[in-house]
Amino acid sequence: MSRRGLVALLALAFTACSDASAEVEAVATPSDPAPRTIPTTDRYAEFRAVLARHQAMSDRVSRISRRLRVANAPLCDVTRLDVGLSTHQLTDYPPSIRPLALHFMDISENGRFIRSIVPGSPADRARLRRGEEVISGWPVQSETPLVIDDGNGAAAIRISADQACVAPAFVINADAPNASTDGREIELSTALVLQVGDDSALALIIAHEMAHVLRGHSAEDGLRWNAELQADADALTLMRNAGYDIDGTVAAWEAGVEAHRDSQAMSATHPPLEIRLRNLESALAALKSGPSGFRPLAD
């Protein structure tokens, strides 16, 4: 999950769980000596479950996003070495939230720690785990090993990193299904991730937003039909390069047109579903009739 999304979740828990009717305990940290209230044991369990569900969604989105970003790195103007992990430290969080971060996030008062591991990534294959301390070597550089302390002492670990597009996708806590990009990062709401159960269908959504990033579409462009149709077509190319089943994805999209007709009817930013479907079918046909192997985005 993004740091912004995590902070929002922790802040929500702090607000919801420290009301006057609940028993609370006071916690202070050296960097924030004023005691802060945090939830009692039963509230701990409740919020831990919420956090675990959010983390599972984040892991899924990160896995799909990374697959697309690594496979399509040759198409991106900006790339970075990626081993499939993220890190954090206590000072990343506002002082009022730090007691919750300490309690829930496998983090200590000092040091930098692994926050998440993308399943199937080089970091996962190297058996790195959430909560291990990163002593040095972060951010990843090609010739510098990561020095990790897993609780049994520090050890240097060399991991073969991948080049990946800089267009990561994150999950934010929101009740309305939505995906968007600011031109750098992609955000998907928790409601959307829960609603889209098939990974290929979710990959289409992420790839669509990723196409906006690669094309340099602005927020104003996002209000124009041609930008949305171009992003739909590009998404199939990005998915194909990453090994997703684009035939099945378009077929499933066609099957879902009727179910989503009402939600799209009032859209001011996207073309009608029938137009988008015809555009996807045309893009699919062009990809299938073209050469095999890696494909660039169409002119």
Order of strands, main sheet, comes to: 4-5-6-7-8
Order of helices and strands: HEEHEEHEHEEEEEEEHHHHHH
- Helix content range of the residues, please? 40-55%
Provide the β-strand percentage band. Answer: 15-25%
Number of strands: 12
Write the layout of secondary structure elements.
Blueprint: H1 3-17, E1 24-29, E2 32-39, H2 41-71, E3 79-82, E4 85-89, H3 98-104, E5 112-117, H4 122-125, E6 133-136, E7 146-149, E8 154-157, E9 162-165, E10 169-172, E11 179-181, E12 186-189, H5 190-195, H6 199-215, H7 225-241, H8 246-255, H9 261-265, H10 273-289
Parallel strand pairs: 10-12
Antiparallel strand pairs: 1-2, 3-9, 4-5, 5-6, 6-7, 7-8, 11-12
Account of the protein in words:
This protein has 299 residues and is of the alpha+beta class. The chain has two domains: 3-164, Pdz3 Domain, CATH 2.30.42.10; 196-289, no CATH class. Helices cover 43% and strands 19% of the residues. It has helices at 3-17, 41-71, 98-104, 122-125, 190-195, 199-215, 225-241, 246-255, 261-265, 273-289; strands spanning 24-29, 32-39, 79-82, 85-89, 112-117, 133-136, 146-149, 154-157, 162-165, 169-172, 179-181, 186-189. It has a five-stranded antiparallel beta sheet with strand order 4-5-6-7-8, with no helix packed on it. It has a three-stranded mixed beta sheet with strand order 10-12-11. Strands 1-2 form a two-stranded antiparallel ribbon. A hairpin with a 4-residue loop joins strand 11 and strand 12. The radius of gyration is 21 Å and the shape is globular. The model is unreliable at 16-31 (pLDDT under 50).
